[in-house]
Each structure stands twice: as C-alpha cells, then as structure tokens.
Design goal:
The protein has 6 helices and no strands. The radius of gyration is 18 Å and the shape is globular.
Length: 120
C-alpha cells in the first residue's frame, strides 16, 4: 500500500473527524449533502467559460479548482468509509458495466445516453 492510497486517505480523514468529535455529524446523508454542495462550488469555477478556457485555467484558478476537487474527494471517501464501500472495486465494476453498455465500436464519437441508441 502506498502512502497516497485511498485507504490511507480514508484512515487520515477518519482520524481527523474522530479527533474533533465529528463522527456524529458524518452520516451518509450529511456527507452526500456536503458532497453535492462542493460539486456545485466546483461547477461555479467553470460557469460561463468556453471549453478552451476550461482546459487552460490560469494558475490561481487551477489551484482553486484543485481544492474544490479535494473537498469532493474528501466527502466521497468519507461517505464510502461510513458505508463500508470499496471505491476502487465499485469503480472497476461500474467501468465493466459501462464497457458493456457503450461498446467502443458502436458509440465512438457519439455522446448520447445508453437508452438513446437503437437496440442491437
């Protein structure tokens, strides 16, 4: 296990919450609500930018975006810990589902939702 693993991060976040007696506030419901609020704060940084501008953020904006993404990751990892969900396993299972729903040879260059494609 590397020092930068999700498990290490989860342990550090749990210790942070325990030291502050915040476990009582970290229900999955509260963490999910905090997560969506942080997602909205991330979106605000991109509102009204062109696609090109969003790919080429100035350094100070890029740092603000990085910190919003960190907040999102923190709440997501914390929620997963509280629900005993292995995020890496869940992500790999979801990728497998998406590979089946969106076969590359069928959807290449087309960004519709899975239910918008003609049935095989």
């Amino acid at each position: 296990m590397t020092e930068d693993s999700l498990q290490q991060l989860s342990q550090r976040l749990k210790a942070f919450a325990v030291a502050r007696d915040w476990e009582q506030f970290h229900s999955p419901k509260n963490l999910a609500m905090a997560l969506i609020a942080e997602c909205a704060e991330l979106v605000e940084h991109f509102q009204w930018l062109t696609g090109e501008q969003s790919r080429n953020l100035p350094p100070e904006k890029r740092e603000a975006v990085a910190l919003e993404m960190a907040d999102i990751l923190i709440y997501l990892v914390r929620c997963a810990e509280r629900l005993d969900i292995d995020l890496i396993d869940a992500a790999n299972r979801k990728i497998a589902i998406n590979e089946s729903r969106y076969p590359a040879e069928r959807v290449r260059g087309d960004a519709r939702r899975a239910d918008e494609y003609d049935p095989l």
